[in-house]
Amino acid sequence: MYASEIDMLSPRSLLECLYLLENEKASFRLLAGGTDAVVRMKEGKWQHDYWLNLKNIDELKFITIEKDEIHIGPLTTHSEIISSPLLQDHADVLVQACREVGAAQMQNMGTIGGNIGTASPAGDTIPALFALGAIIELTSITGKRQVSAEDFFVGPGKTVAFPNEIITKISFKVRGKHDIGLFQKLGPRKAQSISIVNVAISLSMKEGTKECLGGRIAFGSVGPTVLRAKKCEAMLTLGELSPDMISNISSVAWKEVMPISDIRASASYRRDMASALLERGLYRLIKRWADNERKPF
Amino acid sequence: MKTIDFFVNGTEVSVTCSPSKTLLDVLREDAGLTGSKECCGKGECGSCTVSMNGLPVCSCLVLAGQVHGENVITVEGIGTPENMDPVQQAFMDEGATQCGYCTPGLIVSARSYLNSIGHLPGLDEIKQALGGNLCRCTGYTKILKAVQTAAQSQLTFRDL
């Protein structure tokens, strides 16, 4: 079959889409922004009978806040996340990650649900969702289930989602005034690049000090899935995050990652850069925290 | 085969094609608008950039079945040889084009960007906005200069 002969179904509502997922016997693929899916179709990697075009399902496009939880619809584009005042205030790490996705064209097309569903180990929004402790909601015609971002990915391109399920919501707790976050990416060039290593950091700080009460660190592109650096996280609360302490924490990072050598970089380079990126990230984050507090510690 | 109705440069067009045909191919083959170019076909180079509902997208990755009812502006809809857009005029004046293959994409990206802001952009802002458009001949100095010039003339015009 030629790529251009693949037919397309465009459901208008979530229910219609779920019904198609459940009952469609022919092979199909989900299509959201198309920035990955269409490339795979052109490369001949995907030879399916139907595209299930999600673009017309307006009920999957939203950014809302309910009590202390933020909900993002999977069809929300990276541009919409970047320009959302709500997310700028409450999920800076995710906004920064979306800014690092491709360039303007990719940010306008690509969706957060697509980035999750593609499950690339180098997906930029995924470490940010790990750092935020996000919950991903999967819906099928028979019901819903919630999976934490950390349990969602099982390997490159593989997730726990069944073929009859789609992502319907991404939720996380609102960040407080003392929660700070940062996303760092190393790519071959600034724009339009795939991560060699990326890291998302989210810290809860103690007011007026450089002490951290707890935090999450997630590395991307250095393993089969995005990885949480739990040893580094445990060290965050050992004492004031001074430059020495930051350097100590970062020196452990290479133990946490298990990169491969590929077309973009070698494993040993990635290991070194994971440490460097974490050190730089923590340093910048603490500097920003101190500057905002405007108090000498 | 499906019939898809959408707007190109303000005119409604109706094409009958496979829904998996790319928007770029539809524009070039069915609508006869050969300004947008195919280069990498993977959304890395930006040669195929068109504006969809005001936002620049890579038309080589948009499928025809997804554009029903959408408003697409190509480089042909930005200006004509007799009546050029400030961005196009600035590209001419600054000599920001060599082989010309990336130019339509750059013009669309620059136009969309200048439409979205109301201030005089700095060099870094322009670089960020045009990050998805690659040029392999001229280097970017003249292109960036041209967009700055266009932004300046646009602001001057607005203040008149």
TrEMBL record, chain A:
<keyword id="KW-0560">Oxidoreductase</keyword>
<keyword id="KW-0274">FAD</keyword>
<keyword id="KW-0285">Flavoprotein</keyword>
<feature type="domain" description="FAD-binding PCMH-type">
    <location>
        <begin position="1"/>
        <end position="177"/>
    </location>
</feature>
<dbReference type="Pfam" id="PF03450">
    <property type="entry name" value="CO_deh_flav_C"/>
</dbReference>
<dbReference type="InterPro" id="IPR036683">
    <property type="entry name" value="CO_DH_flav_C_dom_sf"/>
</dbReference>
<dbReference type="InterPro" id="IPR016169">
    <property type="entry name" value="FAD-bd_PCMH_sub2"/>
</dbReference>
<dbReference type="InterPro" id="IPR016167">
    <property type="entry name" value="FAD-bd_PCMH_sub1"/>
</dbReference>
<dbReference type="InterPro" id="IPR002346">
    <property type="entry name" value="Mopterin_DH_FAD-bd"/>
</dbReference>
<dbReference type="GO" id="GO:0016491">
    <property type="term" value="F:oxidoreductase activity"/>
</dbReference>
<protein>
    <submittedName>
        <fullName>Carbon-monoxide dehydrogenase medium subunit</fullName>
    </submittedName>
</protein>
<dbReference type="InterPro" id="IPR016166">
    <property type="entry name" value="FAD-bd_PCMH"/>
</dbReference>
<dbReference type="Pfam" id="PF00941">
    <property type="entry name" value="FAD_binding_5"/>
</dbReference>
<dbReference type="GO" id="GO:0071949">
    <property type="term" value="F:FAD binding"/>
</dbReference>
<dbReference type="InterPro" id="IPR036318">
    <property type="entry name" value="FAD-bd_PCMH-like_sf"/>
</dbReference>
<dbReference type="InterPro" id="IPR051312">
    <property type="entry name" value="Diverse_Substr_Oxidored"/>
</dbReference>
<dbReference type="InterPro" id="IPR005107">
    <property type="entry name" value="CO_DH_flav_C"/>
</dbReference>
TrEMBL record, chain B:
<dbReference type="Pfam" id="PF01799">
    <property type="entry name" value="Fer2_2"/>
</dbReference>
<feature type="domain" description="2Fe-2S ferredoxin-type">
    <location>
        <begin position="2"/>
        <end position="78"/>
    </location>
</feature>
<keyword id="KW-0001">2Fe-2S</keyword>
<dbReference type="Pfam" id="PF00111">
    <property type="entry name" value="Fer2"/>
</dbReference>
<keyword id="KW-0560">Oxidoreductase</keyword>
<dbReference type="InterPro" id="IPR001041">
    <property type="entry name" value="2Fe-2S_ferredoxin-type"/>
</dbReference>
<protein>
    <submittedName>
        <fullName>Carbon-monoxide dehydrogenase small subunit</fullName>
    </submittedName>
</protein>
<keyword id="KW-0479">Metal-binding</keyword>
<keyword id="KW-0408">Iron</keyword>
<dbReference type="InterPro" id="IPR006058">
    <property type="entry name" value="2Fe2S_fd_BS"/>
</dbReference>
<dbReference type="GO" id="GO:0046872">
    <property type="term" value="F:metal ion binding"/>
</dbReference>
<dbReference type="InterPro" id="IPR051452">
    <property type="entry name" value="Diverse_Oxidoreductases"/>
</dbReference>
<dbReference type="InterPro" id="IPR002888">
    <property type="entry name" value="2Fe-2S-bd"/>
</dbReference>
<dbReference type="GO" id="GO:0051537">
    <property type="term" value="F:2 iron, 2 sulfur cluster binding"/>
</dbReference>
<dbReference type="GO" id="GO:0016491">
    <property type="term" value="F:oxidoreductase activity"/>
</dbReference>
<keyword id="KW-0411">Iron-sulfur</keyword>
<dbReference type="InterPro" id="IPR036010">
    <property type="entry name" value="2Fe-2S_ferredoxin-like_sf"/>
</dbReference>
<dbReference type="InterPro" id="IPR036884">
    <property type="entry name" value="2Fe-2S-bd_dom_sf"/>
</dbReference>
<dbReference type="InterPro" id="IPR012675">
    <property type="entry name" value="Beta-grasp_dom_sf"/>
</dbReference>
